[in-house]
Every structure is written in C-alpha cells, then in structure tokens.
Amino acid sequence: MNIHEYQGKAILKSFGVRVQEGIVADTVDQAVEAAKKMKEDFGSDWVVVKAQIHAGGRGKGGGVKVAKNLDDLREKAGAILGMQLVTPQTGPEGKLVSKVLIAQDVYYPGESETKEYYISVLLDRAKGRNIIMYSTEGGMDIEEVAHSTPELIFKEEIDPKVGLQAFQARKIAFNLGVSGDAFKDMVKFITALYKAYDATDSSQFEINPVLKTSDNKILAVDAKVNIDDNALYRHPDYAALRDTAEEDPTEVEASKSNLNYVKLDGNVGCMVNGAGLAMATMDIIKIAGGEPANFLDVGGTANAQTVKAGFNIILQDPNVKAILINIFGGIVRCDRVAQGVIDAYNEIGNIPVPIIVRLQGTNAEEGKALIDNSGLKVYSAILLKEAADRVKEVLAL
C-alpha cells in the first residue's frame, strides 16, 4: 500500500527521524494559512508547495514549486491544486492533484554547503534480506545516476538475525562522505530510518533527497513509503491511511470482493484461481494471438458471487473482446464453478463478449457438461490447448 509523502513523513517522525516539516492543504486558502503557520514556526516567508500524489518525479512535472511570499504561494498552490500532473511514473494520463504539502524551506544559507543524498530501505527478494541502498548523488536525477554511473550506488545487506548493526550505519555515513556533527547525525538518521522500516512492516522506504543542511543537520526532504499489504492487519492505523482516489477504481472494487486484480492493456479478460495458473493463462493467451487484459485471481472460492464480481470488473474494460476462465478444481469442485458461471451469467444478463471456461481437476467432466447444456454463449474446454484454440477462434470472429 502506497501512502502520501506527508503521511510517510509523519511515520518517520514518530520513530525519531528528522524530517522537513509541513502542513497538508486541500484548498488555496488552507495553503495560505499553512504558510503563515510555517513562518511562525520557522521565521521564513519561503515555503515549498508539493503536490501529493502516489508517484515520483513530481518536480520535473511541475508539481513542486518554491513560493517566496503569500501572493506567490497563492498563485503556485492554485496552479498545482487541480492539475493533472504527468510524471515518468504516472503514465501519459497523469494524476489529479487534490492536496498539496506546504513544506518548510530547508535550503537556508549557513556556514557550510547543503548536500543531497539518496537512501532507501527495501527487501532484496533474491537474497531474502533487507538492504539499504544509498548514493552521494541524491535528487531528481537519481534514475539517471543508477543507469549511467551504477558505481555511485552502494548497498548494505542487513542480516535478519541481528538487524542493522552500529558499524553498518557508520559505514554508510562514511561512504556518503559526511564528517563531524553531520556524520553523527547521519548515523542516527540511518538507524532511526531502518527501525521505522522494520517496525511498520514496509516493503520500501525511499528518501530522496536526504539533505545535509547548511548547519549540518540530516533530514528527510521527501518520503516514498510502501507498506506490505499482507501486514496491514497488524497496523490498522496505517491501513486507515489508504487513499483509494490514487488507485485504479477497478482494482479498488476488486479488493472489496477479495479478488486480486491488476489491469493490463490487452483484449482477453482472465479469471483464474491461483497466481501461477494466472501467469500460465496469460502466456497461453499470447500464444493464441491475444493479449491479456488483466490479472484476476479469484483464489480458492470460485462461486457465483466471486464469478459475478469478476465479470463486472472485467467488463468495465472496453478493450476486452473475450473472457477466459481457467479453473483448477482442487479445493473447489469444477461442477460448482461451472454452476457459479451459469448463475452469474444469468444474473448479469446479456454479456456482450464470448466466454471460454476451461475446467480441470475434481469433477471437470461434470462441470463441462453443465456448461455445454446451459444454452448460454459459453464455450467449454478441459485441456489448456483447447482453451487456447477457443481463444483464437473467438478473436477471429
């Protein structure tokens, strides 16, 4: 589950990580009041207006602006609120900005120069360990740094038996080139950051940039946080941070029916039980000359209600020209699945695209017979090749 920058910073702060302070606003008037409060707290007219969407690259897309006074703030907050912000991570359609963060100006003058770093904590699935990835070249062009000069990206593996060790935090601070008070503060920052990541059951904490201020303080200027969905039952307070307006509406609808759904760009809708079978189904669709329109795993309970919910979600995509249902009857019996398909079809009414149902496993023959005798516009199959041939046939119609 992704959360907004201001929410991620609040979590970081609760674990002792120093952050760029800010106040979230939904309107221009709220943004002005937030800027006045920031001046009271920090004594500067300058603030940063930051669009709050679930995507990186906001600065390059025009979603991050520095305002030097209240009139300037009103103009820039008004321009960002309501804009369709397009970044490299949103795709060409962009995302609607409905709130902004009015953030503290942390690039103030002082005795030493400011410096931006990149630090993230994430899971290396291949090694089964958390890693801290970091670089001296933080900022907007970190993707280009990783591509062109990968030697500037460092990684520190964390042994899950003992967690982050003090010498590792010092090693990271040393490699980042900080010294004196900044070195001590960086060690504290890294230690607190890893604690926050571990305690929240997150899959990613990305801070870009981490800033060394002109008075040698280390703080998080941004926060991209992804909390593991499977652990949200342990963190109901974090689950409440979910912003469904930032997610695909069909994926939100699918989650309400306990369906695992991901929208794709193809023309054949998929409804399958089991992630591995779903991947194989998408492969067979491509072999047959089609393109999968989605990943949809109904799990072990493919009954009339789940099938109906799956139909309703898939049919929202106007690009879908056929639907392939591929069920292995292990936990669930194929005849029950077949009856569920028939009941769902009758309840929905006229489904405008052909449906191929491939059943294999317990009572597969009985399930096929139910489909064949239903009188509905549904094609049955038992072998995967049969299903692929049916897909090819209906796409050619």
Automatic annotation (TrEMBL):
Positions of the ATP-grasp fold succinyl-CoA synthetase-type domain: 2-210
Which pathway is it part of? Carbohydrate metabolism; tricarboxylic acid cycle; succinate from succinyl-CoA (ligase route): step 1/1
- Write out the entry's keywords from A to Z: ATP-binding, Ligase, Magnesium, Metal-binding, Nucleotide-binding, Tricarboxylic acid cycle
Give the residues the record marks as binding ATP. 50, 57-59, 106, 116
- EC numbers for this chain: 6.2.1.5
Superkingdom, taxonomy of origin: Bacteria
Q: Which residues form the ATP-citrate synthase/succinyl-CoA ligase C-terminal domain?
A: 271-388
Q: How many and how are cofactors bound here? A: Binds 1 Mg(2+) ion per subunit.
Name the positions where Mg(2+) binds: 208, 222
Residue sites binding substrate per the record: 273, 330-332
Described by its record, this protein's role is as follows: Succinyl-CoA synthetase functions in the citric acid cycle (TCA), coupling the hydrolysis of succinyl-CoA to the synthesis of either ATP or GTP and thus represents the only step of substrate-level phosphorylation in the TCA. The beta subunit provides nucleotide specificity of the enzyme and binds the substrate succinate, while the binding sites for coenzyme A and phosphate are found in the alpha subunit.
Protein name in UniProt: Succinate--CoA ligase [ADP-forming] subunit beta
